[in-house]
Amino acid sequence: SGYILIDPSEVVYCQADGNYTHIQLTRGACEITTQNLGAIEELLDGSGSSFFRAGRSYLLNLNYISRVDRKSCSCVLEYPGKSCSIKIPAQKIKMLESVFSR
To answer: Residue 97 above 80 pLDDT?
Structure first.
């Protein structure tokens, strides 16, 4: 029925849900869009912010990752007053480490 404008720096992560995407924002709100995760990834790639595709279901803002756990194959994202843990595939953990080691 309309649209909202979102500053890419406010996006903590995006989660795929079929042809929809849930966008978690730093202020605690979660917006849902009718675009799939691939389309959102393309939009955010040109934004100047740093995002990492963590498997088929998640797109993570690297600025909010505070911890990566190889054993449980998860990473913790922290943003004002909140934190969340997201499971990601083991091969993506290795790719994420290479991104941080640059």
So the answer is: yes
Which has more pLDDT, 49 or 22? 22
Put the strands of the sheet holding 74-79 in their side by side order.
65-69, 74-79, 82-87
Q: How far apart are CA 12 and CA 19, in angstroms?
A: 20
For 53-93, the pLDDT digits (tens) are: 999 999 999 999 999 999 999 999 999 999 999 999 999 99
Residue 32 gets the label, from left (phi > 0), alpha (psi -120 to 50) or beta, of: beta
- Which two three-digit tokens encode residue 93? 């953990």
Q: Is 92 left (phi over 0), alpha (psi -120 to 50) or beta?
A: alpha
Q: What is the 3-state secondary structure (H, E, C) of 37-85?
A: HHHHHHHHHCCCCCEEECCCCEEEEHHHEEEEECCCCEEEEEECCEEEE
What predicted TM-score, i.e. pTM, was given to this entire model? 0.91
